[in-house]
Amino acid sequence: MAELLALMLLFPLAGAVFQAGWGAKCGRRASNMAAAAAIAGALAMAVVAIWGLGVAPHRIRYGSWFAFDDFSSAFSLLYDRVAGVMTVTVTFVALLIHLYSATYMREDKSFARYFCYLNLFVFFMLVIALADDLIFLFMGWEGVGFCSFALIGFWHEELPNVDAGRKAFIMTRIGDLGYVAALGIVIALFGHASLSDLAARAETLSPGMAAVIGFCFLFAALGKSAQLPLSAWLPDAMAGPTPVSALIHAATMVTAGVYLLMRLDPLLAFAPDVGAAAALIGATTALYGAICALGQRDVKRILAYSTISQVGYMFLAAGCGDVTGALFHLQSHAFFKSLLFMCSGVMIQAFHEEHDIFRMGARLRKKMPGLFLLFTCGAAALAALPPTSGYFSKGRTLADALAHPNDIFLLSFVLGTVAALLTAIYVFRMYFVAFFADPADPAPMSDDPALFRMERPLWPLGVLALVYGFINLPEFFHIKPLLDSFLAGTVAPNPPEVENAEVLVMALDAVIAIGGLLIAWAIYRPARRHMAAPDGCLTAGLGLDGFYRKWLAAPYVRAAAFLWRGVDEDMLNGTVLAATSGISGLSDGIRRLGGGRIAVSLGTVFALAAVILTWLAVGWTQG
Whose CA is closest to 483, among 47, 494, 49? Predict the structure, then answer.
C-alpha cells in the first residue's frame, strides 16, 4: 500500500516537473499526452489501492522533513475509505479535464505552463486527501491556493485576469489564518500535528477547547470553499481557462474545505456548536448563491454562483455529522458541475468567446445536438430532477437537517429548501435561454470541427450525472446503499431519523425541481423573444463584493497610503534627510573654514585646543 500511495502522489508531481523542464521543447502533442498520462497513472494507483483496502485505515510514514526541540513533522499519510473514494473521484475527474484541455488549449502558446500547473494542482489536492500530518496537509492546502492563483491569472497579459488571481489568493489566505491558529493550538496541546491522533484524542479536550479548534478550522474551510463571508473570490475566478474552472469547482480547491471538515468529524462531535455553525452557514450560502445566480448573464458566472450554493449543501451535511452524505453530494457535484463547466467552454468557443447566454439560442441546440444532450444531463442533475444523481445526494443533505432535533438545523432545512427551488429556476432559465431562445442580438457561430472533439471526454460525466445517485439509494427502496455500506466502520452511521426524513424530503424535492422547471418555462419559454436578466443587486452578488471594497479594501488602501507617504516618506524619510542635510551643511562650513591653507588649519586647531583647556580649567577650579 505504501508504494501505491507514493506512486499516486509522484505521478502528477513528475508530470509537473516534466512540463516545467521539457514540455515546451517536446511539442504540443507530446506535452498533452504526458500530462494526461501522469493523471491516468495516479488514477490507476487510486483504483488499485481502494480495491485492496479493508476497513482498517493505513497510516504510512515516509520520514520526517523538519524538526525542532521535541517536535517533528513527517510525510505521513492516512488512507481510509473516505480518502480512497476522494482520491478516485479527484483523479477521475482530473483525467477527463486533462483530455478536454488538450483540445480546448489547442491554440495557446503556453500549453506547457498550463499543463504544469494543472498536474501540480492535482498533486497538491491528493496531498490534502491523503495527508495525516497537519503541516504536510497545510503544504497541499497552500499548494492548491498557489496553483489556483497561477491558473486563474493564466492569461496574465490582461490586468483583470491578474486581479482575479490576486483576489482569490488574498481571500483564501485570510481564511488560512484560521488553519494556522488551529495548528498552533494542536501542537501546543499534543506536541505533534497528527490528524488521526487529534481525532482519536478529541474526547480528552474540554468542550471550549474543542470548539476553539473547530471554529478555527471552520474559518479556514470557509475561505477555501468560498462560503460566506469569504465567497466573493469565486465568481471572479472565471477569468481563467474554462477547464481550470471545472477543476477548481468540481473536485479540487472548493471541495478541500468540506473534506477537511469530514476528516475532523470526530472533533466536531465534541463541539456541536461548530457543526451547527457549519450547517447554518452552508444553508445560508446555498440560498445566497442561488439568488445571485438568478441575476447573471455570463454562463460561467451562473455556474460559479451555483458552485458556491452547492458546496453550501456539503457544509450542511458535514455540519449535521453525516460524512457519507457530504461525500455523496461532493461526488455527484464533481460529476455534473465539471460536465456543465466543460459544456460551457464548448458553448463559449462556439460563439467566438461569447459568454452571454442571451446571445446564444436555438441555433446551438440544432447545430450541436450532442452538446445539448450533455448539458441537459448536467442541468437535470444540478436542478435535482428525479432520478438524477443530484436528486438523491441533495435530498440526503436536506434529510440530515430535517432529522436533527436542533432548531438551527430546522432553519437550515428551510433555507436549503428555498435554495433548491431557486436552483431549479436559475438552471432551467439558463437552459431555455441558451438552447431554445431566439435572441434579439445573436452572436456569430463558429464552424471549428474541434468543438465536436471537445464533447468526447464529457460522455462519462453525462452518464454519471444521471445514474450515480443509484449507488446510494435511501433504505426505503430496499436496495443496499453501496456508499453507506462501503464507509461503514470508517465513519459514524446515519441515525434512523434521517432514513425516515428521506421519504418526505424526496417527495418534496421532486415537487420543487419540477415546480422550478415550470416556473422557468413560464418566464423564459422560447416564445418570449426579448428577454433580459435583472441588473444591479443580483448581478453584483447582492453587493457583497462592493461591501468588501468600500468598507474593508478602501480603508486598508487609505491606511496603507498614509503609512507609506505620511509616515514612511514624510516623517521617517524626512527626518533622516533633514539630519543628513544638517550634517552635510556643518561639514561644508568646516570645510570652507579650512579652505586648504595650513596657517588657517593650524589656527583653528590651536583655537579649539584653547577652548578645551579653558573648559577643563574651569571644571577643575569648581571641583
Answer: 494
Which is nearest to 119 in space by CA: 145, 93, 98? Answer: 98
The C-alpha atoms of residue 82 and residue 88 are separated, in whole angstroms, by 10
* Per-residue confidence (pLDDT) for residue 7, from 0 to 100: 96
Per-position DSSP letters for 164-220, written without gaps between them: HHHHHHHHHHHHHHHHHHHHHHHHHHHSS-BHHHHHHTGGGS-HHHHHHHHHHHHHH
For residue 341, give every residue at least 6 positions away whose Cβ sits within 8 Å of its Cβ, in sequence order, or none: 242, 243, 245, 246, 249, 250, 300, 303
Report the alpha-carbon distance of residue 119 to residue 98 in Å, rounded.
9
Closest CA to 263 of 175, 396, 137: 137
Q: Is 328:472 a contact under the CB 8 Å cutoff?
A: yes
- Nine-digit cell string for 343: 459544456
Q: Residues 250-278: what's their mean pLDDT?
A: 91
Cα(513)–Cα(424) distance, integer angstroms: 5
| Cα four-point dihedral sign 142, 147, 153, 157 | positive
Q: Is residue 532 classed exposed, middle or buried when 0-12, 13-18 and 19+ CB atoms within 10 A define those classes?
A: exposed
Neighbours of 199 (CB within 10 A): 17
Containing 510, the helix (H) or strand (E) segment is helix 496-524
In tens, the pLDDT along 108-129 reads 889 999 999 999 999 999 999 9
Contact 232, 199 (CB under 8 A): no
> Using CA atoms, how far apart are residues 376 and 363, in angstroms rounded to an integer?
16
- Identify which of 218, 214, 213 has the alpha carbon closest to the alpha carbon of residue 188: 213
